[in-house]
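Sequence in, structure out. Go.
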Amino acid sequence: MTLAADYAQRFTAALQPVARALEVHLIELMQGTPHIDRISARPKAIDSFLGKAETLTESGEPKYPDPIAQIQDQIGARIIVFYKQDVDAIAAKVIRYFRPIESKDRVPDSQWRFGYFGKHFILLMPEDVIDAAEDRQAVPPFFELQVKTLFQHAWSEGSHDLGYKPGELPLEPDDERMLAYTSAQAWGADRAFDELFRRRAERKRTIDASTG
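Output:
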């Protein structure tokens, strides 16, 4: 069986139903948590998986000699929140409820550069959702969870569509500068909204204390 056929079979028999069950599971776990815009989970598209499987190292060797076993984001989930401070609150819940294999703050390489921001986890697949699969053996042991603000999510979706699709024209230097500029704007908007939320919360505490 070819890699494409193997993954397509896994996609239907395991990844799609488990992703749906995982989304429900995450929504239930996060119920009552403020400032969540959306929670979603989905399997990695077949074309995206095959493209990632073809990635080469700098020496020209395959990065994933066994893609089915090595690619950890065959199921990806996202929790999108309103404010930057909410990312830490969600991360604390994730660590409490799941067994993180990896936790990483994704930021540009230098403070002088702007690009993708977000918090990523590689987590063990919860046993509760595995029963949704027609073929339990095809369920990956891990899934990726991204926790991002609305601005971080909007920027990453737009920049991916514009600059990172296989087969698309490469970005010109000015195009890359424009993407960096929009990332800086999103970063600034996140800080502004976070600060406004903190100020309002402090004023409310002051008013409550004076009238209590």
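Check: The chain has seven helices and five strands. The chain has a mean pLDDT of 92.
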